[in-house]
Amino acid sequence: MTSHQGLSAGRKPRILVVDDHPLMREGLLQLLSGETDFTVCGEADGAASALAAVERLAPDMVVLDLTLGRDDGMEVVRQLREQHPAVRILVLSMHDEMLYAERLIAMGAHGYVMKQEKAEVLLGALRKVAAGEHFLSAAVGSRLFGKLARQRERSVVRAGAADRLTEREHAVLRAVARGLGTQEIAAELGMSAKTVDSHRRNMREKLGLDSPGDLVRYAVRWSEDTH
Fold first, then answer.
1. Which residues contact 25 (CB under 8 A, 6 or more apart)?
2. How is residue 8 annotated by DSSP?
3. d(CA 132, CA 69)
4. CB-CB neighbours of 203 under 10 Å
5. Which domains are assigned to the chain?
6. How far apart are CA 103 and CA 84, in angstroms?
7. What is the pLDDT of residues 119-152, one digit of tens each?
8. What is the pTM of this model?
C-alpha cells in the first residue's frame, strides 16, 4: 500500500522516538543508532513533548508508542496528520494488531508493529515506511485488502443498481446529491412533497440502502462518479 513518495535518494530518514517507558525508549534509541541508514534526531515521553519535538526538530518519521501513560497515542496520530501531514508515523504497541491497526491506518498512520516482534521486523517496517509504503503484518494486511475489495464490489453493485432507477428517480437523485431537501426538490421538479418522499423510498429499496442518510451519501458518490 503506497500513498507517499519515499525520501530523496541518499538522504537518511530523521527519526523521533516517542515512548513513555525510559527503558523501552533507550532500547529503541540504541537499536536505531546502530543502523547506518537512519538518524535519530530526538526523543519524547508523552503527547505534548512529542508534538513539541516534531515542531522543533522536523523529523521525517515518528516511532510512536500507542500507550503513553495517561496520553492517547491515537490522538497524537490525529494531531500529527493534521499539523504535520508529511511526517510518516510507525506505531509501536503491546496491543494485538488486530484490535487497532486498521483504525490507525485509516487515521493516517503508515504502519503498526507489535512490541513482541523481533528487532529486524521493526527495522524492516521502518525501511518500508521510509520508502513511502505502509507496513502491516501479513495477516492484518490480507484482512484489510479483503475488506477493501468487498467494499469496492458493493460499490460496483450499487452503481449498477442506479441503472434500474426511472428517469424521474434519477432527477430526484441528482437533486439529493446537490443537498436539496424534500420541499426544495418538489418545487424544482414540479411534484408534491409526498411524491418526492415516495421516490426516495423506492430508490432506497432498489439500491439496497437502509436509511435516508445512506441515500444522501450514495447520491453524492453517484454524482461524483457520473460527472
1. 17, 19, 43, 45
2. P
3. 30
4. 23
5. 14-136 (3.40.50.2300), 147-226 (3.40.50.2300)
6. 19
7. 999 999 999 999 999 898 766 666 666 665 555 5
8. 0.61
Residues 153-174 as b/e (b if ≥16 CB within 10 A, e otherwise) read eeeeebeebbeebeeebbbbbb
Is residue 91 a contact partner of residue 118, using CB atoms and an 8 Å limit? no
**Mind giving me the DSSP string for 28-89?**
HHHHHHT-TT-EEEEEESSHHHHHHHHHHH--SEEEEESEETTEEHHHHHHHHHHH-TTSEE
216, 181 Cβ separation under 8 angstroms: no
* Range with lowest mean pLDDT among 114-128, 157-171, 198-212: 157-171
Note the pLDDT tens digit of each residue in 94-128. Answer: 877 677 887 888 889 999 998 888 999 999 999 99
Helices 167-177 & 193-207 angle (0-180, nearest 10): 90
The Cα-based distances of 170 to 78, 183, 207, 227 in angstroms read 38, 17, 12, 14
H-assigned helices in 70-166:
73-83, 97-107, 119-130, 138-161
Cell numbers representing residue 6 in the block: 519515499
- CA 88 to CA 69: how far, in whole Å? 22
Predicted confidence at residue 139, as pLDDT, reads 63
CB within 8 A of 108, min separation 6: which ones? 77, 78, 80, 81, 85, 89
The identity of residue 133, as a single letter, is: E
